[in-house]
Write a structure and sequence with these properties.
- The chain is mainly alpha-helical.
- The chain has a domain at 40-117.
- Helix content is 68%, strand content 0%.
- It contains 4 helices and no strands.
- It has helices at residues 3-19, 21-33, 38-63, 68-91.
- Helix 3 packs antiparallel against helix 4.
- The longest helix has 26 residues, at 38-63.
- The termini are far apart.
């Protein structure tokens, strides 16, 4: 088959599909029900929840520590976790409002001056 005949037939079909409102409506409806980002977003949200839990635990441990070296290590770990949470939020920005902005988990924001060593 000659390339120019095949090319013309393919473009005719493409134009027919793109100008048929029924085809467009079916595709829009299919995409509403079949979110290709759902699994990845769910995985990111699980990781965000895990990081929030670990941050809460570290902050609670930090409040009980008097050793400056240990405090430094715990603060470094919190900083690393915060950076990971921000990167995860960037990865899913626009996919789901829940993970668009990283926030501290409820009650986990360090507020006591002793935690700011």
């Amino acid at each position: 088959m000659a390339a120019h005949l095949l090319d013309a037939a393919v473009w005719q079909r493409v134009a027919g599909v793109l100008t048929d409102p029924h085809v467009i409506a079916r595709e829009i409806e299919r995409r509403r029900h079949d979110d290709p980002t759902a699994a990845e977003t769910a995985s990111i949200e699980r990781r965000l929840d895990e990081l929030a839990r670990r941050q809460r635990d570290l902050i609670q441990r930090l409040a009980d520590v008097d050793d400056a070296d240990v405090v430094g290590l715990l603060r470094a770990e919190l900083t690393t976790m915060s950076a990971e949470r921000a990167a995860l939020a960037d990865a899913c920005a626009g996919q789901r409002p829940r993970c668009a902005t990283p926030t501290w988990p409820s009650g986990a924001q360090p507020s006591r001056p002793a935690l700011m060593l």
